[in-house]
Design a protein that fits this description.
heterotrimer; A alpha+beta; B alpha/beta; C alpha/beta; B: alpha/beta; Alpha-Beta Plaits; Rossmann fold; 18 helices; C: alpha/beta; Glutaredoxin; five-stranded mixed sheet; 26 helices; 18 strands; about 40% helix
Chain lengths: ~160, ~575, ~650
Amino acid sequence: MMRMSINYDTIFKKYKQGRREDLIPLLQDIQDVSGYLSEETIIRAGAFTGLSTTRIYGLATFYDQFRFIPAGRIHIRVCNGTSCFLNGSQAVMNKIKEITGLNPGETARDGIFSYEIETCMGGCNHAPLVRINNKYYSHIKPDHLPELIKKLRFIIEND
Amino acid sequence: MVFTIQVNNKKISAEKGETILSALNRHGIIIPTLCRMKDFTPTGACRMCVVEVDGREKLVTACSQPVEEWMKINTHSPRVINARKTIVELLLSNHPDDCLYCDRNLDCELQKLAGELNITERRIRSRKIKPRLDQSSPAIVRELSKCILCGRCVRVCEELITSTSLDFINKGRSTHVGPAMDRDLNFSSCISCGQCVIVCPTAALHEKHNIAEVKEYLNKPEILKAVQYSPLVPAGIAEEMGFRYSRDFDRVLNSVFRKIGFDKVFNTGTGTDICISEIAGQLLERIKNKSDKPLYISACPAWIKYAEQFMPEILPDVSTVKSPQQITGSLIKTVAAARAGVRPDKIFSVSVTPCTAMKFEARRDGMMRKGISDVDTVLTIRELSRLIKLFGIDVTNADPEPADEPMEGRSSVAAMAEVSGGMAEGVIRSVWFRLAKSEAERQMFKKLRSGASFREAAFNTGSVEISVAVVDGLTGLNKLKEARASGRKYDLIEVMTCPGGCINGAGISSMNTKDEKKNRAKMIWQADDTDAVNLPEKSPVIINLYEKLIKENREISDKKIFHTHYEKRDVLL
Amino acid sequence: MEDLKKILVEKVLLYESDVLPPETESILRQIRREKTTAPVIYISSGTSSIISGSEETWSAIKTYLDENSLKTDLVRVGCQGPANFEPLVCIQLPGKNRLFFRNITGEKVDLLLNGVFHSDINEDDLAGQQGTRGFEMWPGIPFIEELPFFAHQKRIVMNNCGCYDPENIDEYIARNGFRAFAKTIRHYTFEEVCDIVERSGLRGRGGGGYLTGLKWKQALNTGSLSRYLVCNAKESDPGAFTDRTLLESDPFRLIEGIAIASYAIGTSNAIIFFRKGSEHALERIRKAIGKAREYGVLGNNIFSSGYSLDISVRREPGAFVCGEETALINTLEGKRGMPRLKPPYPTTSGLFGKPTVINNVETLMNVPVIMLNGPEWFRATGTESSPGTKVFAIAGKGRMSGVVEVEMGTSARTILEDIADGIKEGREFRAIQLGGVSGSFLTSENLDLEIDYETLREKGIGMGAGGFVIIDENTCMVDLVRHYMEFMRNENCGKCIPCREGTGRMLEILESIIRKPENEESGTTLERFKGVMQLDSIASVMKDTSLCGLGQNAPNPFMSALGNFREEFEEHIFDRKCRANVCRGLRTFSIDVEKCTGCTACASKCPVNAIYGTRLQPFFIVEEKCTGCGICYDICKFTAITVK
């Protein structure tokens, strides 16, 4: 997840002011660029669409896509859909908690790892499925994780 | 079109287009509801009003389902009663069990429902919601563990008040109601009007209590305890305590206060008269200078906060005159203090109002003089009723007594100021009296007394023409904006946050019907018709204050104590 | 290319007769690669294929072809369906039947292509040949259509999937694409189209099973200046991937379906509400819409018919409840996705208060063929109450999994035993779950049930959107039901009391059954039993009173499991036993003293210090402290630890 300073004007240019129905695409565009929704984003989105900050925040917290803290440099997504569940996703989740100490939705203090649970990534035949940044890892077993995470951490730290 | 439907095996008539609930209520069949608010469209959130309809697989909600001819409805079948009971039991399963300590004990809709549905055992247990208490606002307290997520407060704050300070946050079992960024109320755009408190069925939202503070000071003999109360308070207390109000009670209340332990009892109405008088003076000034800017009346503190947040550009046009409560308070700490020979810092001044926003107002920067607040604490009418009960005073057995001088009386327009349109009317009548030297005809004010959210009228004294706009409930601000955008000019604009005016403030009992609101206003207008003292200019109390007490007191003769200032607020809008 | 576009539009789409002249047919055959001089290699490239590594396969093949200077057409196609075969590579040598090779990852490419181009086909990875008229058969190689996976399917919706490049509109048109749309807007009125679809008996494939044509008529007959058509491509159900596979394999078909549906209800505004997270599929559909605009299939005054249409795509921001119609409408309006009261129904007052029709992807993909072949043709497939086919996403513990399309009326047994080829690793069958997270279970008693809307409804089972999850003996039904309830508790919108509080309470009770009790009071059998009785009563009130389908159907897995697997629940409650050894709180481990070497590996890893012993002597697990986590079981190199 890249954290860049956002040029709000380029994003807002695509939309007409004051339209509530543009709110979600607007927030999605901002999150695509910055990786999360900061307080400033929410205030600006509210000013642009003519809605109170309370409404924007209430809306954004309803949907899973929106994050309010930046993701880590290594963002782990574990699928907890039916097929993955039947094939042992719980064990994978427990292992990740054990190794990184993170609960779902959290980002580590040093900003390297973050972890979230997805309800279904649609790779049901590759269960249990884990996605780390943009790469998919299928048929993950808890034993695979220590090695994999160590490798990824090494790559990031030596980048 | 009227047709027949069958309810509980009896035929009743129903009109096409109405809901089942409306048809049932007309025939005296009561169905429990929880999320419903009169005058608002139904949302179907609580599911309490479900009824059984023949031919439908599932139960349907009576509040939203339109009637159909030949519908067969059963309102109290075992299946329906079981459903309602289970729903309330589910709510109770994660509701705190502290009814006896709760602010709404005996006045809680959930408690009432549990009683009506005969819930006598704790069948469903659950992990309770983690308690979260938000006491940051001076006027309103949020107790999230008691919230049943009916959504009434969210709707009222958006549809009635337009500040939209509350919304649902998250989803699923972690849903809760909160202001922007889930911070506390004091960071948000909440204007403390308390309309959410009125509609909340439980104690999830209630007013901040200042009774403990008052009790503490009542125990201090070295402090002069002064109290002021607004003209509505006597009628409000009668409603709260459940007895019939008559005008004698106004004076009985004075003795009740003394019995509680207050040394001095004053009438906020005096301050209202001064407020009207001062604003009239400002208006005359503007008319003389042919100013084309309107003068906004500033008596509603929730409106002032709203303007500071959302409309800072009009602040230069808002009258700097303080509200009646603050004016009376400032007089207590100066004139009354001097009279009693007491230093202002040895006075504890309490104000009783029908308003929660006044708790916020009392703490404002600009409501102090030399570091001493005009008003120390504000109690709502509800709190006063508790105080009266706490001190075991039998109000029906108390004798009438006069209030203390020099703020012992008021004109009838002072009472009208608590009805929407009333203060504007008072100002205009005062101006008229000063210019035309005669009284304005009541007929002229009919337009300002109607029930619309935006009203306007023009008055011609012969020498000047004054146009007035009244915004009744903040939803009327849009209409004001439209009118001004289309070129209309106003000299005086009154804005009240609570629809109908202070008579529907958050400090009095819960939700009133449109008729109950109208009745309170009617009583006040009737009194105005018959009272001899119907203008500040005619009130001996006011004349005395202006001619003697204020003029002769060097410290306040410049009348600066009657004025305050406003500033743009930096809150999460 | 300009000329080809012109030819396709004028000589194919706008051609008046159903039968095309031979010259045109010849061009189309070429586009369909039925007449080639060079070999063609097709690589499946849906999201599922990509996860399996099909992009590496593509690069490897490209490298091979470049290095060997081979003139070969390399085409990315959609998904054929069988997930076990991914990455699927199909090689077509000129004049001969296509050969399908399965699981061709990057490193296998060289070996495969060497073999094929030197006429030495490696049979290990060969799945079969596809019999095509006019092409030469390969001797001794089985036909892929005869594999049980394909033999029992009837592909009406999926007939193009995996057969053409989903980014190439010419290929779609060459397959009779967009002809139905062109015919519809130039020769039929709105009412006629609704009528045809209603007569065909097409029912909503998203789970509701409502007559599509009827829904369109309701919207059309509601007076309004504008209406909306929304294609629900959200596919909320975890465990479902049919819609995504369909639309990334045959996006133009979906566009055509949306176009015809929009015409039928008289609107120029169509919106695709797209599933979160499938960036690849999103790209596909966006490109396809772009191409359709280029060819004049979308835009103003399409084909001079006077009809205008454009399709916009909205990405859904992630909420299961938005699969519900009114919640979806609220999301499109920029509000929290909380369902609204019905009535009014969306067809009367929906998006922005206008009549709105929300249709599922699979439903819409049936529409072009109905318009092309007529309603009677459609009725000839399937059953009386449910004509046509149904696409299922087989997942779970079957040997074969993936996306399949069967005729309505096929039995679950056929799908389980023939198409999915039974249970992996020879394990015992427990149940099939239809309908995703709010679906019921089919056990061995009703495996022969004909799958159609009415038959299932009579048994109290919902068809669902296409989820078909196969469950074996290694799954604890109680834990599975708990998992679903946890999902419902997190995903419900929070508006109505029975669902919000009911799911929470039901989850707590289910958790108490599978966990070790924390204290005496909550741990008694009586408490657990009372809890299960409550589950029943809460479930029935939830079904009866919840505002929307989520709450009304959330108790289904529980009620179905309780009905079919009662003993398993009782074992958990009374015997504190989990027969599948899944519930950690109910299992304890013990050390076999014969096998234990005292290496202390388990004791050092035990998170609750429940393992005692002296080095080099057999160790011992204290049952009361054991939380059943299984760390010791996983770590023991001597298999000395067993589940009690």
